[in-house]
């Protein structure tokens, strides 16, 4: 079984070890409960120990059930062997609702704590939504100071070991850093060869915030992604020359940026392939070719919530 390297995350209260590759659980079209549960069990079997979920994905419950079963069947000996990340949905991004929302996620997951709790997006919705896009009336700016205090409270109550953010620009991170007693440990953002995020990577490095890349394969075959990564001629040529798949070249490039990554596959063969990116590295020449790829953000909040002014403003920040 593959052993995935770990990265030390040290900007929160305790030092944490996070496996550099995590399994995503957001699928499109949304997978049913049984499919998510069996994919998680398969992922544990092939060596994944880091799982990424969110209230919004509806995958907390099947992930929790898979963990219970993995413990019962001895696939893992203790819950501590896993690194579990979940996220505060925008509908609960209000100071009074952070602790209850975290407790609700823990209940879904049947866990006493998560390893990382992230603010999913820097925006608030005043209602719990059942469908997207949403009406403009329910969109509000987020009270970052109040919300971050709630996140810090989750650590103090032992509900989570670490706290962080997702989809935050340099500007939004700076706002959090100005009010934080406990700085964010992680910023989970879209990052891949066609959206390299050089400025954000530099900024986070300087501030000691660890980046986790999502959609490292460009989220092909989903509503929010496209095939620009997996259909890239440059990546395919490198892959052919190396005897690797295009996906492995993309994931290896992401890993070489000094970040961790969460990628989703519910196929056993691709799960294994996506873990098999160690023991070789890209050459200077290959890195140079990849750095020249045309850049465009793939995942936008407007594609989820609708093209409302505040949402478009956030999408324009990088
Ligand atoms: N914080 C945030 O706002 C966001 C977080 N995320 C998180 O990041 C995770 C991963 O990102 P995601 O957007 O899913 O995109 P990915 O870049 O991981 O791409 C997933 C897609 O690629 C396919 N795939 C996986 N491996 C391979 C391979 N080796 N070769 C060819 N195709 C492959 C999968 O299909 P198949 O299953 O059939 O293999 C799926 O269609 C999510 O599941 C979620 O947990 C994602 C978006 C936003
Ligand atoms: O309803 C909203 C969705 O769950 C949205 O938040 C996700 O699709 C997001 O892009 C993610 O994957 O994190």
Automatic annotation (TrEMBL):
Keywords carried by this UniProt record: Oxidoreductase
InterPro entries: AKR (IPR020471), AKR4A/B (IPR044497), Aldo/ket_reductase_CS (IPR018170), NAD(P)_OxRdtase_dom_sf (IPR036812), NADP_OxRdtase_dom (IPR023210)
Active-site feature positions: 57 (proton donor)
Binding site for substrate: 120
Site feature location: Lowers pKa of active site Tyr: 87
A biological-process GO annotation: secondary metabolite biosynthetic process
Residue ranges of every copy of the NADP-dependent oxidoreductase domain listed in the record: 21-292
Gene3D superfamilies: NADP-dependent oxidoreductase domain
GO molecular function, one term: oxidoreductase activity, acting on the CH-OH group of donors, NAD or NADP as acceptor
Entry keyword annotation includes Cytoplasm: no
Name assigned to this protein: OLC1v1033052C2
Organism: Oldenlandia corymbosa var. corymbosa
């Amino acid at each position: 079984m593959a052993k995935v390297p770990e990265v030390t995350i040290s900007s929160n209260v305790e030092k944490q070890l996070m496996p550099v590759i995590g399994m995503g659980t957001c699928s499109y079209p949304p997978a049913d409960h049984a499919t998510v549960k069996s994919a998680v069990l398969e992922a544990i079997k092939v060596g994944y120990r880091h799982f990424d979920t969110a209230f919004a994905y509806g995958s907390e419950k099947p992930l929790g059930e898979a963990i219970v079963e993995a413990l019962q069947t001895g696939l893992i000996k203790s819950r501590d062997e896993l690194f579990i990340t979940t996220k505060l949905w925008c509908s609960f991004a209000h100071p009074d609702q952070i602790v209850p929302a975290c407790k609700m996620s823990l209940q879904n997951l049947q866990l006493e704590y998560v390893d990382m709790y992230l603010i999913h997006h820097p925006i608030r919705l005043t209602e719990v939504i059942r469908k997207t896009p949403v009406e403009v009336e329910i969109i509000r700016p987020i009270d970052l100071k109040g919300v971050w205090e709630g996140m810090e409270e989750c650590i103090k109550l032992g509900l989570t070991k670490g706290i962080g953010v997702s989809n935050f620009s340099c500007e939004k991170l700076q706002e959090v850093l100005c009010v934080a007693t406990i700085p964010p440990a992680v910023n989970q953002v879209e990052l891949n060869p066609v959206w390299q995020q050089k400025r954000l990577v530099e900024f986070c490095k300087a501030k000691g915030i660890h980046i986790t890349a999502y959609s490292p394969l460009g989220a092909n075959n989903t509503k929010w992604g496209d095939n620009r990564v997996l259909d890239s001629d440059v990546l395919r040529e490198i892959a052919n020359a190396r005897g690797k798949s295009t996906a492995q070249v993309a994931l290896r490039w992401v890993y070489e940026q000094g970040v961790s990554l969460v990628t989703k596959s519910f196929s056993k063969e691709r799960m294994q392939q996506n873990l098999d990116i160690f023991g070789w590295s890209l050459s200077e020449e290959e890195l140079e070719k990849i750095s020249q790829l045309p850049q465009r953000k793939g995942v936008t909040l407007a594609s989820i919530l609708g093209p409302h002014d505040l949402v478009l403003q956030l999408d324009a920040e990088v």
